[in-house]
Amino acid sequence: MGNSTTYRFGSCLLDEAQRALTANGREIKLQPRVFDVLCYLVRHRDRVVPKDELLDALWPGTVVVDNALQRVVSLARAALAEAGLPDAVRTYPRHGYRFCFDGTCPPGSAEAPSTAESPDASIPLAAARAAVDRMDWAAACEAYAAADAESPLAAGDVEQWGRAAICGGLGTGVVDVLERTAAERDGAGDVLGAARATLLVVQIRMDNREGVMARGLLQRAARYLEGREATQERGHYAWMASRLALSSGDPAAALALADEACTLGRMLRDPDVECLGLVYRGHALMATGRIDEGTAQHEEAVALTRLGAVRPWVAGWTMCSAIYAARFRCDWLRAAQFADAFEDWSRSSRMPAFPGTCQLHRAAVLGVQGELDRAVAEGRAAADLLSRVAPWAEGDAHCVIGDVQLSMGDFAAAEASYRQAHALGWDPQPGLARLHLLTGRPALAQRGLERALEEGDWSQRERRGLLLCLLARAAVSAGDVERGREALRVLATDPQMLATEALRAMHCHAQAEVAIADGDLALAARKLREAVRHWREVGSPVGEAETRLRLAECLLQDGDASGCELELHAVESNLAGAAVAHRARVDDLRGSLAGRQAASR
Q: What was the pLDDT predicted at 3?
């Protein structure tokens, strides 16, 4: 090192006064903030500099997301790599960064020791670590694979590789290496390290719908953790076990395990574990009918991500899960807000989240909002991507595509999409029942909905209110009015089943169908007008158009041609794009009105 403003290390000269970095006499261009970070780390090279200290020193009085600092550090590493010093800036997870040149720096923290290995680490390994810092998952996986081919990676790097692979939808490519690492750690007596590697494999197996393998590996992770209950590893075990219990149809066990994760996260002051516990606590509560409580858990989890307390992959997982749950409860106002926040967060953090799922959620929201062409394009892109990186969700993508095609009036394509979803192991209800209703097959719709209510998985239990609303309509249309009334009576026993504007709209529509069957057209018209108001609150022209058409039919049946004309005009003038699935009904109404006008002359 030189004087107070000039530092020499290797072939480099860092001149603070001239704000220049040179290597072998050649200047290496640096952005101003990158230069400042590098100087600060060099000046304080005797210690690990906490992230908060760097943020306060270099962005005083400014709110900065953690990813901005990661980006700057990554650029500093890239500049030093040009000078042959790819590992001079090292990451100490949950602590900070340190400039290390002379080999005197200790290894990284116990939480992830691989991030500070010897200064002669390979170029591919340095590239992999830099790619992780900038959340370029594909590049990180490629570089880790190259580094591992040179020399087997340390356990911490393998774990980082595993996490990058999961985030990038490339998990299957790292399973063998994780299993090797788990065996090595077990043999060395590092049972927590073995548990961490094993739990990453569990997550990959679950994402690929390999439940049998996942359960076996989860049991093995539990054995590694025997006697080590108050650990972060146990917290990650608990939320993954909760996820598996939920998918196996045991919401009570899922709730207990999610509670354990929340408790451990708070006790250990580990926001990642707490946040993931909140996510699955929310799912489990909703699966048992406690919708408001479950929603509150998801709102808290999303708030935790927005406060910047969790790692990026946890934030992505949390927001994705919250949108998913909102979608399944027809909570489209919340789903839209979460989706917007998710998109903003992904853009600002440069975190691509979980490939395909963001597009899928956006497609579902766009479909409800009436942007049908965009929705189907997003849905198809999501399905293509999910088929390669997250096959467990591919069936859901085909359900979303089917829903949009249904709104577009392409009934044959919608039926093909629902069949494909079923072939991929996804329940196509309630979309398939809506298709059967719109195509004049109410008995088929009723049978499908009855089955979904009796045998539905946890996701169908979350949407029980929606299924019952549609069942009431299908039963009445099929001539089974008493079954329609019974469905409405069940809905009346639990207000939480109708906790969203969209569900209240569908409930009003179902009540109207029973009233029409009873000959009470005035009551039916009031309920349909109420449903229209709910759909307008949701911001769903698709729901509004269908309901206004049914109101027009009801009014015409009651002899109110003027009222029918008003509703039909609203559909044709403002909701034409959202009413394309109902062209025949619009034409029939126009014909009936024209006939009445001719008869009155």
A: 46
**What is the C-alpha separation between 532 and 505, in angstroms, rounded?**
7
What is the rounded distance in angstroms from the CA atom of residue 248 to the CA atom of residue 267?
A: 28
Residue 236's closest CA among 210, 207, 206, 202? Answer: 202
DSSP string, 381-401: HHHHHHHHH-GGGHHHHHHHH
pLDDT value at position 567? 95
| Dihedral pair phi/psi, residue 482, rounded to 5° | -65, -35
Helix (H) or strand (E) holding 245: helix 232-247
Over residues 363-384, the pLDDT tens digits come to 999 999 999 999 999 899 889 8
Radius of gyration of the chain (CA): 29
Quote the CA–CA distance of 324 and 262 in Å, as a whole number: 20
Q: How many Å apart are CA 345 and CA 308, to the nearest integer?
A: 11
Query: Comparing C-alpha atoms, which of 171, 198, 172 is closest to residue 183?
Result: 198
* 415 phi, psi to nearest 5 deg: -65, -40
The contacts of residue 442 (CB under 8 Å, 6+ apart) are: 436, 474, 475, 477, 478
Mention every residue, 6+ apart, whose C-beta is less than 8 A from residue 150.
Answer: 122, 124, 125
Pick from 401-410, 456-465, 531-540: least confident = 456-465
SS (HEC) of 491-510: HHCCHHHHCCHHHHHHHHHH
Please say whether the beta carbons of 67 and 351 come within 8 A.
yes
Cα separation of 570 and 574, whole Å?
Answer: 6
Task: From residue 566, give the alpha-carbon distance in Å to each of 506, 546, 553.
Answer: 22, 15, 12
The single-letter code of the amino acid at 254 is: A
Number of C-beta neighbours around residue 570 at 10 A: 18
CATH number corresponding to 1-117: 1.10.10.10
Q: Which of 70-79, 280-289, 315-324 has the lowest mean pLDDT?
A: 70-79
Consecutive H or E run containing 15: strand 12-15
Decide if pLDDT at 323 tops 70: yes
Residues 6+ away with beta carbon under 8 Å from 238: 257, 258, 260, 261, 264, 273, 277
**Percentage, residues of the chain above pLDDT 70:** 91
Q: Are 157 and 128 in contact (CB under 8 A)?
A: yes
* 388 phi, psi to nearest 5 deg: -100, -35
Q: Residue ranges of the domains in the chain?
A: 1-117, 122-228, 523-601
Long-range contacts (CB closer than 8 Å, 24 or more residues apart) made by 262-267: 264/230, 264/231, 264/232, 264/234, 264/235, 264/238, 265/235, 267/230
Give the span between the Cα atoms of 445 and 431, in whole angstroms.
10
As beta bridge partners, residue 14 has 7, 21
- The answer to whether the CB of 281 falls within 8 A of the CB of 260 is no
- pLDDT per residue as tens digits for the range 475-503: 999 999 999 999 999 999 988 889 899 99
| Exposure string over 331-364, b if 16+ CB within 10 A, otherwise e | bbbbbbbbbebbeebbeebebbbbbbbbbbbbbb
- Reported as half-sphere exposure (CB side, CA atoms, 13 A), residue 136 has a value of 14
CATH class of domain segment(s) 122-228 = mainly alpha
